Amino acid sequence: MVETVRAAVGVEAGARTSRWVRVCALDDLEIERGRAALLRDTQIALFVLRGHDGAPGRVHAVSNLDPYSGAHVISRGIVGSRDDVPTVASPMYKQVFDLRTGVCLDTQGAEPRSLRVWPVAIDGHHVLVRWEDHR
Q1: How far, in Å, CA of 106 to CA of 121, rounded?
Q2: Which of 72, 110, 115, 121 could form a disulfide with 62 if both were Cys (CB 3.0 to 4.6 A apart)?
Q3: How many CA atoms lie within 13 A of 123 on its CB side?
Q4: What pLDDT is stored for residue 8 in this prediction?
Q5: CA–CA separation, 30 vs 44, rounded Å?
Q6: Beta-carbon count within 10 A of 86 CB
Q7: Where are the alpha helices (H) located in 1-135, listed in sequence order?
Q8: pTM across the whole model
Q9: For residues 65 and 129, what is the distance between their CA atoms, to the nearest angstrom?
């Protein structure tokens, strides 16, 4: 399911602004299962990790576009970890990405590529993504 969020940003042509955009409720996310969202014309993948007490922990937002296959499938990836690094493995060719930085940790023999990442904040029960709007 892709949720659409159209943020109203009142800026002049050529300007760039950055703001927090409400994407969904925290309850809309399942622990260690990806969820895709659409911000303007960009698909992002949201992942909420398991906290130390089993409750929802940190939320990560990365590009839903797999840079190796060109398909919007990262939200369907397998969440895991390498040491203390939270990761997602692409369901296409199995490259493994750091959810914090977007860096590919296992390129499966291909050239290194990365996922774009966005800062995430939780405001009450709402998930917010720091969005830069280019006009």
Answers
A1: 28
A2: 115
A3: 10
A4: 34
A5: 16
A6: 19
A7: none
A8: 0.84
A9: 17
At residue 111, what is the residue type? E
pLDDT above 90: residue 18: no
At residue 78's C-alpha, the angle toward residues 117 and 34, to 5°, is: 55
CB count in 10 Å sphere of residue 88: 25
pLDDT at 6: 39
User: What would the mean pLDDT of 45-65 be, rounded to a whole number?
Assistant: 92
Q: Which two tokens stand for residue 23?
A: 């994407």
pLDDT for residue 16: 61
Indicate if the pLDDT at residue 59 is higher than 50. yes
The first and second tokens of residue 56, run together, are 């929802």
87-91 LR contacts (CB < 8 Å, sep 24+):
88/34, 88/45, 88/47, 88/62, 90/66
Q: Which tokens is 99 given?
A: 């959810």
Q: Could you tell me the domains of the chain?
A: 20-134 (2.102.10.10)
Q: Which residues pair with 88 in a beta bridge?
A: 79, 97
Going from the C-alpha of 107 to that of each of 44, 69, 75, 98, the distances in angstroms are 21, 12, 18, 12
